[in-house]
C-alpha cells in the first residue's frame, strides 16, 4: 500500500484570459484558502483557485483535487492568452537571475529555513546542494510544483516539463560540483575579498564565481544575524573604487536582500517576541533611518512607537542609507508592504495602540516615500490596512465597554482621521452617525452635571473635529446637523443666548461672548449658533459698541475677526 504526502497550492490569474500561475504552495490548508480569499477581496487578481496535491511516494506522481475556485476562472479558461508565456530558463546561468532565485526561494522555503540558508547560498554552495539531494523528495516536489503551472500555461504535459526542469537542475548541479572539484571556486577568506573581486572583475562568470566565494565565507554562520554581520564585514572590505567595487557590493547584497525579505531572517536581526507593529516600525527605521530620525525629532507620536535599533541593525541602516544597497532596501520595502496588506493585527489586544501605530507608520513611510517605496504603493497598502480598522469586530474592541457616549464619538473621530480610502471613510462615517444619533448620547449631553456652556463647548469641539476627518458632505452633514440640534436643545433650555444678551455687563463683552457662540467656537453650528448670531446683530447696531471700541483700539482686530467668523461682516 502506497504512502502519501499532501500539500496545497494557490493559483491565480492576474487578469481574465491570462494563464494560471502558482502563487503559493503550503502544507497548511487554512492558510491556502485564506490566502486565495484575501487576494480576491483585495482585488489583486481576477481569479484564484486552491488545489490539494497528493503525492504517491512509490509512483512519484501527484493527484490534484480542486477544492476552491474564486473569480472569473471559467471565463478566463475559455480563451487562450494572446501573449506568449515568459520564456523558460534554458541554461544553468538563468537559474541565478533574481526572478529565478525568488521562485526557488518560494518553492523550497521550508527546506531553506530548516537549513538556515538563502536561495543565493543554495545556488553557490556544493555542500547545500548535496544536502538537498540527500533529503529525499524535496527537490522532486519543487520541480513538480513549478512544472504543473508551467504545463497549464504552455499547453504541455506535466511529465514533459518535469523532465525538462530536472535536466536543467542536473546540469546546474553538475557544473557547480565540477567547479568545486577543480578548485575553480575562490576562497575569499584566504585570498581576501578585495583581491578576489579585483581578480575576477574581468571574468565572464565573475558574478557566479564571486558569489560562490561569498556563500562559502558565510557558510559557517549559525544564525541569520551572524550571516548579516559577515556580509557587512565583506562590504567593508570591498575594493574602494572601480568595477571591482561594483561587482563586490552587488554580490554581497544578493544574499543580504534575501535574508531581510525572509521572515525568520528579519526577526532574528530585529528581535523576536514583539508584535507586528513594532517589527514594521523597526523595519521602517532600518530602511529609512535618516528620514525617520528627522521625523522623530518633530513628532512625539512617532518617537513613542519607534524601537531602538541593535548595533548590528544600526550598522546595516548606515549602509542602507546610501545608494549602494538599493536592492536590499527594496527587499525590506516589499516585506513592509506584504505585512501591511496582510491580515495580522499590528497590536493584538490593543485597538487604540493599533491606530497610534498605523498613524506613526503612515507618517514614517510617507516621509521616506520615493527612497524606500513609491508613494502610491504606500497609499494602497494603508488603504488596505485601514479597511481592517472599520470592521465591526475592531470597532467594538476599540470602543470597549467603559467609554461614555461622548468619549466614543471622540474615539471614532480619531479613528476616522487616521484611515484613508473613500470606502473606509464612508464606513467610519457610518459608525460616527450611528453614535451621534443614538439616544444614549442625547440623554448623556442633556442630563449631564456639567454646565450648559461646558456641554455646548464640548459639542462644538466634536463638530470641528468631525469636519477635519475628510468625510464627504453627505456623510459629514448629518453628523454636523445632529450635533447642532442637540446643542440647540441644551441652549434653549438654559436660555443661554438670551441671558447673555441681557446680562449686566459691558456691551462689548456680551457681544464677544455671543460672537464666539455664533462662530461655532463655544457652541455647535446650528440652532444655538443661529440664535446667538441674531442677538449679536442686535447688539452690533447699538451705539455703545463704537464708544467702547474707540476706548480700547487694541481690541478692534480681534473683534473684527470674530465678526467675520460669525458671518456678520458686510
Q: Tell me the β content.
A: 5-15%
Secondary-structure-based class equals alpha+beta
Could you name the ranges where pLDDT drops below 50 across 5 or more consecutive residues?
73-84
* Count of individual helical segments: 32
Biggest β-sheet: strands ordered side by side in the sheet? 2-1-3-4
Report the mean per-residue pLDDT as an integer. 86
| Inertia-based shape | elongated
Describe the structure in your own words:
This protein has 570 residues and is of the alpha+beta class. 66% of the residues lie in helices and 6% in strands. The chain has a 4-stranded antiparallel beta sheet with strand order 2-1-3-4, sandwiched between helices. Strand 1 (4-13) and strand 2 (21-26) form a beta hairpin. It starts with a strand and ends in a 5-residue tail after the last helix.
Q: Care to give the gist of this entry?
A:
The chain has 570 residues and is α+β, with helices and mostly antiparallel strands. Helices cover 66% and strands 6% of the residues.
Give the topology.
Blueprint: E1 4-13, E2 21-26, H1 29-41, E3 47-56, E4 61-71, H2 73-77, H3 98-107, H4 109-114, H5 119-124, H6 126-134, H7 138-154, H8 158-182, H9 188-191, H10 193-200, H11 206-217, H12 224-236, H13 242-261, H14 263-270, H15 276-287, H16 289-298, H17 300-305, H18 311-320, H19 326-340, H20 351-367, H21 375-388, H22 392-399, H23 405-417, H24 422-437, H25 439-446, H26 452-467, H27 473-494, H28 496-501, H29 507-518, H30 527-540, H31 543-551, H32 556-565
Helix pairs in contact: 7-8, 10-11, 10-13, 11-13, 12-13, 13-19, 15-16, 15-19, 15-20, 20-21, 23-24, 24-27, 26-27, 29-30, 29-32
Amino acid at each position: 500500500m502506497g504512502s502519501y504526502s499532501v500539500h496545497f497550492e494557490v493559483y491565480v490569474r492576474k487578469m481574465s484570459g491570462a494563464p494560471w500561475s502558482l502563487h503559493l504552495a503550503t502544507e497548511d490548508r487554512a492558510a491556502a484558502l485564506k490566502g486565495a480569499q484575501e487576494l480576491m477581496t483585495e482585488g489583486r487578481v481576477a481569479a484564484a483557485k486552491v488545489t490539494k496535491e497528493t503525492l504517491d511516494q512509490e509512483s512519484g506522481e501527484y493527484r490534484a483535487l480542486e477544492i476552491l475556485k474564486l473569480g472569473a476562472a471559467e471565463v478566463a479558461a475559455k480563451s487562450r492568452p494572446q501573449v506568449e508565456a515568459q520564456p523558460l530558463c534554458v541554461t544553468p546561468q538563468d537559474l541565478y537571475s533574481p526572478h529565478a532565485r525568488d521562485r526557488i526561494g518560494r518553492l523550497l522555503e521550508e527546506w531553506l529555513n530548516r537549513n538556515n540558508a538563502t536561495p543565493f547560498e543554495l545556488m553557490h554552495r556544493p555542500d547545500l546542494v548535496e544536502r538537498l539531494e540527500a533529503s529525499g523528495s524535496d527537490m522532486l516536489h519543487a520541480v513538480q510544483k513549478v512544472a504543473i503551472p508551467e504545463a497549464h500555461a504552455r499547453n504541455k504535459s506535466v511529465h514533459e516539463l518535469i523532465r525538462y526542469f530536472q535536466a536543467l537542475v542536473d546540469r546546474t548541479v553538475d557544473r557547480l560540483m565540477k567547479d568545486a572539484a577543480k578548485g575553480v571556486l575562490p576562497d575569499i577568506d584566504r585570498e581576501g575579498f578585495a583581491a578576489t573581486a579585483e581578480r575576477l572583475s574581468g571574468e565572464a562568470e565573475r558574478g557566479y564565481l564571486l558569489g560562490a566565494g561569498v556563500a562559502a565565507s558565510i557558510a559557517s554562520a549559525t544564525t541569520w544575524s551572524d550571516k548579516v554581520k559577515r556580509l557587512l564585514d565583506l562590504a567593508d572590505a570591498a575594493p574602494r573604487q572601480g568595477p571591482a567595487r561594483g561587482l563586490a557590493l552587488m554580490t554581497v547584497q544578493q544574499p543580504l536582500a534575501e535574508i531581510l525579505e525572509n521572515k525568520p531572517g528579519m526577526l532574528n536581526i530585529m528581535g523576536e517576541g514583539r508584535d507586528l507593529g513594532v517589527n514594521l516600525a523597526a523595519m521602517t527605521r532600518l530602511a529609512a533611518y535618516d528620514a525617520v530620525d528627522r521625523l522623530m525629532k518633530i513628532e512625539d507620536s512617532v518617537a513613542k512607537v519607534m524601537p531602538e535599533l541593535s548595533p548590528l541593525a544600526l550598522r546595516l541602516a548606515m549602509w542602507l542609507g546610501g545608494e549602494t544597497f538599493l536592492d536590499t532596501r527594496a527587499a525590506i520595502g516589499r516585506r513592509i508592504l506584504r505585512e501591511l496588506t496582510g491580515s495580522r493585527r499590528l497590536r493584538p489586544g490593543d485597538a487604540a495602540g493599533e491606530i497610534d501605530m498605523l498613524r506613526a507608520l503612515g507618517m514614517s513611510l510617507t516621509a521616506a516615500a520615493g527612497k524606500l517605496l513609491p508613494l502610491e504603493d504606500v497609499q494602497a497598502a494603508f488603504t488596505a490596512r485601514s479597511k481592517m480598522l472599520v470592521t465591526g469586530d475592531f470597532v467594538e474592541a476599540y470602543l470597549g465597554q467603559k467609554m461614555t457616549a461622548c468619549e466614543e464619538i471622540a474615539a471614532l473621530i480619531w479613528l476616522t482621521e487616521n484611515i484613508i480610502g473613500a470606502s473606509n471613510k464612508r464606513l467610519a462615517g457610518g459608525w460616527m452617525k450611528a453614535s451621534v444619533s443614538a439616544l444614549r448620547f442625547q440623554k448623556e449631553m442633556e442630563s449631564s452635571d456639567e454646565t450648559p456652556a461646558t456641554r455646548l463647548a464640548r459639542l462644538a469641539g466634536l463638530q470641528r473635529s468631525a469636519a477635519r476627518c475628510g468625510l464627504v458632505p453627505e456623510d459629514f452633514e448629518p453628523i454636523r446637523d445632529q450635533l447642532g440640534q442637540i446643542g440647540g436643545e441644551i441652549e434653549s433650555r438654559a436660555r443661554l443666548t438670551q441671558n447673555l444678551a441681557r446680562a449686566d455687563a459691558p456691551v462689548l463683552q456680551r457681544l464677544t461672548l455671543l460672537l464666539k457662540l455664533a462662530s461655532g467656537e463655544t457652541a455647535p453650528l446650528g440652532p444655538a449658533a443661529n440664535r446667538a448670531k441674531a442677538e449679536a446683530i442686535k447688539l452690533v447696531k447699538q451705539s455703545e459698541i463704537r464708544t467702547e471700541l474707540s476706548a480700547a483700539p487694541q481690541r478692534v482686530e480681534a473683534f473684527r475677526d470674530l465678526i467675520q467668523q460669525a458671518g456678520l461682516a458686510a
